[in-house]
Specification:
Chain A is an alpha/beta fold and about 400 residues long. Helices cover about 35% and strands about 20% of the residues of chain A. Chain A is globular. In chain B, helix 9 links the parallel strand 5 and strand 6. The chains are: A alpha/beta (about 400), B alpha/beta (about 300).
Chain lengths: ~400, ~300
């Protein structure tokens, strides 16, 4: 063995840490990040010229994060999410993020996000199904902590028997935290909602965490056309001193009762503190609607508004419903469609108006419990119009024939 | 932050609470205080609802005085007695979820490092034996394996005091407590050994019988965490309620336990040792030889 074979060159990453396997990122990898310039949210989301690219949902998320000026991302693998946070890792290697690591498990990851958000940096993680439930104790406390952050949810089965297939029952748990929750229909939505979400959550009058959900595999692993602006522009950085609560960075005068003081004593002050704080969380969520309208067009999309039968759906179920609307039209039946983009804040007023003229409201879902049908029933008058279903679960696809059978009244 | 941050605009000072005025005039910000000065200046720890005679309170009070940069420190706690006094201290205190301290600290420290490149921000976890060795165990161990740069201080009262006296992993074998009605059936967890295995840069075990030693240990732990890697201080802070120690005998108990099984010990990695020796040399050159010494 020659001497040169024994002495190996030490490889390091752009941060200077030693790399022991696989080739290190190319030296010019950081050029992309360095060439980016900050533009206004309006320009990046609404005005910049775009080009259509054919890509998976995970890649669409990567392209959003590339332009989102994220400081730190914390990852943990779980199917069908892993691909996305791997892609975010590549962005870190290319210098688009300042810090990135694989956490110990989801409880730890969600807690670390809570720490990073309190430090005032823009932070991101993603999970799916059982991982979401594992992190739920923390996720449920983020809104009360007034912690802007981005959580991507790639929905999958959570209940036994274990499965990795898409089923979005986990979103029913997300409805009650106080945080903002968007449900993307396709790859394009996934790209757009992430960028809008970062900006909305950090608005002073909102100051809340945002979750963007997609149905696993149907969107994450399938390709679709995504219109993207150029990669050399990005959102402005987080402006943490213009939010609703002080940062935990010790740059403020000390106060005796800290922002995160426990409120556990059983007395009227503690009841009132908790009650008024939670009321403010939900009021802040409602205030997000203004920005949803600005950057996501509207919290809902309406097709055929005068139809007497209207389908209400969210996520990938909207795509199946569009096809059902088309098939019905071929058969001479007019069917309407309301797409719910924002599950929290829930667009109650917009929905009431959109279905005002409908006699029947069909709510197809990818889960057993029918949480969207319950949401619709709790928001609109004359609830006998709501037909809860059809529903498939455990990862099944929704045959448009099944939606059509509900449209035609056979169920 | 600095003393300038808390200073009040002229004309407004008299309208602030007395304790705030005292913090500005004679507080711990921007100057190093010795534990021997306690009682002669306004401490960051304010009035609190801890039990009479509580050794944990004495330890925390001493530890807060010892923090090398109070004005740039953030403290993280979890459920337990310690947070009742930590939330009454003039330092930002994060009280998150059960057993999340070291995960929150990881995200916080990294976030602060991104935002404050030239101004070290110290992050200190101060939580109980249940919070760190039981419910928070995974987060503690992984923060150590990842070499996160913050200090973990265990307030080890060997019991779940705040919930009313249940056995914890740090309870001595044989102790009869709630949820261990026949006596605890396994040994006290060796968190010092686990810290060493995980590569913690500085590890110390201490009992609050000697305030100067406590202060030196905390200062060492925070400074080494700032420059080298994770540090761990395990402090015996008895629960006089659940272990039925008469209030006047709390320090007798501390001295006895210290002699029997909780003697002072410290461990440095080579890197931490060389950093600390360098720091001490520099400090002596600047301040002269009359800095606080141990014992």
């Amino acid at each position: 063995m020659s001497e040169s074979a024994v002495i190996e060159e030490v490889k390091t990453n752009p941060q200077g840490d030693v790399i022991t396997s696989a080739p290190p990122p190319k030296a010019d990898a950081k050029k992309g990040a360095a060439s980016q310039r900050v533009v206004s949210p309006d320009y990046l989301m609404l005005q910049a010229p775009r080009e259509a690219v054919f890509m998976t949902g995970s890649e669409a998320a990567k392209e959003a994060i590339r332009r989102a000026n994220v400081d730190i991302a914390i990852s943990y693998p779980i199917t069908p999410q892993s691909e996305t946070m791997q892609q975010v890792g590549y962005l870190y290697a290319e210098g688009y993020l300042k810090d990135y690591y694989r956490g110990e498990e989801e409880y730890g990851v969600m807690s670390a996000i809570a720490g990073a958000s309190r430090a005032g940096v823009r932070c991101l993680t993603a999970t799916a199904g059982p991982g979401l439930i594992r992190g739920m104790e923390v996720i449920a406390s983020w809104p009360g902590g007034r912690l802007p952050s981005m959580l991507l949810i790639m929905c999958r089965v959570i209940n036994a028997p274990l499965a990795i297939q898409p089923d979005n029952v986990e979103l029913s748990y997300m409805l009650n935290t106080g945080g903002i929750l968007f449900h993307a229909e396709n790859q394009q939505d996934f790209y757009d909602y992430i960028l809008a979400g970062f900006m909305i959550g950090e608005k002073p009058e909102v100051t809340l965490p945002v979750a963007v959900a997609v149905d696993g595999f149907f969107v994450t692993h399938a390709r679709g056309w995504v219109s993207l602006p150029s990669a050399d522009i990005k959102l402005p950085p987080r402006d943490c001193y213009h939010e609703a609560v002080p940062m935990m960075d010790n740059e403020n005068p000390p106060i005796r009762i800290s922002r995160d003081a426990p409120i556990q004593k059983s007395n009227f002050i503690s009841y009132h503190m908790h009650a008024s704080w939670q009321q403010e969380v939900w009021a802040a969520q409602a205030r997000a609607n203004k920005w949803v309208k600005r950057w996501m067009g509207s919290p809902i999309e309406v097709v055929n508004p005068t139809a007497k039968t209207i389908i209400v759906a969210s996520g990938a179920m909207v795509s199946q419903s569009r096809e059902a609307v088309r098939q019905a039209s071929e058969q001479g039946i007019e069917v309407g469609l309301v797409k719910i983009k924002s599950l929290r804040p829930f667009p109650s007023q917009e929905l009431v108006e959109a279905v005002d003229g409908a006699d029947r409201i069909i709510v197809p879902e990818f889960n057993y419990v029918g949480w969207l049908a319950k949401e619709v029933r709790s928001a609109i008058p004359r609830t006998e119009r709501v037909i809860s279903g059809p529903r498939v679960f455990g990862g099944m696809t929704m045959p448009t024939e099944l939606i059509m059978s509900y449209v035609k009244g056979r169920r | 932050m600095s003393l300038e941050t808390i200073r009040v605009a002229p004309g407004f000072k008299e309208y602030l609470p007395r304790e705030y005025q005292d913090l500005v005039d004679d507080g711990p910000f921007g100057r190093e205080r010795k534990v021997s000065e306690v009682g002669s200046f306004k401490e960051a720890v304010e009035e609190h609802p801890m039990c009479a005679g509580c050794a944990m309170t004495l330890f925390i009070r001493t530890a807060i005085v010892a923090l090398p940069s109070l004005e740039n420190t953030v403290i993280i706690g979890t459920a337990g007695c310690g947070r009742l006094v930590l939330s009454q201290t003039a330092v930002p205190f994060i009280y998150g979820n059960y057993g999340d301290t070291n995960a929150v600290a990881s995200g916080l420290k990294r976030g602060l490092a991104i935002r404050f490149k030239d101004k070290p921000k110290d992050v200190v976890v101060m939580a109980g034996d249940g919070g760190l060795a039981d419910i928070g165990f995974s987060a503690v161990m992984h923060s150590w394996f990842r070499k996160e740069r913050f200090t973990t201080v265990m307030l080890d009262n060997e019991v779940y005091g705040n919930t009313g006296g249940q056995e914890s992993g740090m309870t001595q074998r044989g102790a009869i407590l709630k949820m261990a009605p026949l006596g605890k059936k396994f040994e006290k967890m060796d968190m010092m050994g686990l810290a060493k295995t995980a590569g913690v840069a500085y590890i110390a075990r201490v009992v609050p019988t000697n305030a100067t030693r406590v202060a030196n240990t905390i200062r060492k732990a925070v400074l080494i965490a700032r420059e080298v890697g994770p540090t761990y201080v395990q402090a015996y802070t008895s629960c006089n309620i659940e272990y039925a120690i008469p209030t006047p005998k709390v320090m007798d108990d501390a001295r006895m336990i210290e002699q029997q099984r909780y003697g002072f010990s410290e461990y440095f990695t080579d890197e931490a040792k060389s950093y600390w020796e360098h720091y001490e040399r520099e400090r002596r050159q600047v301040k002269g030889p009359d800095g606080e010494s141990e014992d």
